[in-house]
Amino acid sequence: MDKNSSIDIKEEFEKYVGPLCESMLDFPWEDKRAYASWCAQTYYYVCHSTRLLALGGARSELSAQGMHRRFIDHLAEEKGHEKLASNDVKALGFTLDQFPEMPQTSLFYQNQCYWLN
Predict the structure, then answer these.
(1) pTM for the model
(2) Alpha-helical runs (H) found in 60-80
(3) Burial class for 62, CB neighbours closer than 10 Å (0-12, 13-18, 19+)
């Protein structure tokens, strides 16, 4: 990769990640209800992350053995992470059923499922 290509990639990355970082900084993290809602949405997504990783590993080309192995290793690392988010919701004094899954959350993993199939 030449220097211009890496500059283009960096500019493209910053174009999309910059606004995301600003949104994260503007989020009311000190608001217990807002943070519990964020944890609940994280829970709903993370429940699907091991399945997405399994699907990605299964769909990787036979010639891409390194990528296949990384998906499988990452899958093992993610196992049980949804419990962390649900425990945080409980620790904040809420229950998951107080925060139904948002359409944006389901679209996040459904979109990935679509492209992996």
Answers:
(1) 0.79
(2) 65-78
(3) exposed
